[in-house]
Amino acid sequence: APWPRPRMGGVPLAGLTSAQVEERRRALPERHETSSIPLRAIVRRNVLTLINAITLGFLVLILIAGAWNDALFAGVIAINAVIGIVQEWRAKRVLDRLALLIAPRASVRRDGASVEIPADDVVPDDIVELQPGDQIVADGELVEARGLAIDESILTGESNHVARGVGDAVYSGAYCASGAGVYRVTAVGDAAYANRLTRTAKQATDQRSPLQLDIDRLLRALLLSMIPLSAALLIAFRIHATDFQQAAETATA
Predict the structure, then answer these.
(1) Higher pLDDT, 168 or 47
(2) Nearest to 121 by CA among 98, 135, 138
(3) pTM of the model
């Protein structure tokens, strides 16, 4: 059975009717997926690259030639890929935590009664009740409060609880630390603070730095220059009758 929710001073707001809920649900825009990039995509993005493909080709060549001592360069590429995977995996874990900011259920007042519903079913103007430990599932404005203190540490980094009263704004992702309250929902889904924060973080991780862009341009220029140089190198090997192992070592270098 749901945890009992006491009536707080005065006559509580009755909340939306079923017809009003359906009307607001139809007016909501389509919600975007907030889950972060899967691990397999992270691995693929860091392993299946052009420079790794070229390096692997030369590694096979040098191993066929039996020059094992010259194969150590592949370790640098492998370490670089592992570092990239680990860094993106750590970022993924942070984004996944942000995606879990929205509580799975909420207690709302509808048709004059308090009901438990999934957080995704909350709509604007819903009247949501708060008890200690409840997470705020959508942005809203407090309409009732009794000794209410909100923990916003996961949003702001501030560990101290913040006292909130009637008329104050509350944001998705925070939770009720003590007291009780009721708030009217003002933003849900993509418009809610937690989802906007998640999208901003995801966009930031997808942006490449100026240094990365410069390196990409340099790599493209070097790869283009490798085509005529490779042809010239093959001609030189043919002219000097270079044996296979020495040719492989020289080409790899």
Answers:
(1) 168
(2) 138
(3) 0.53
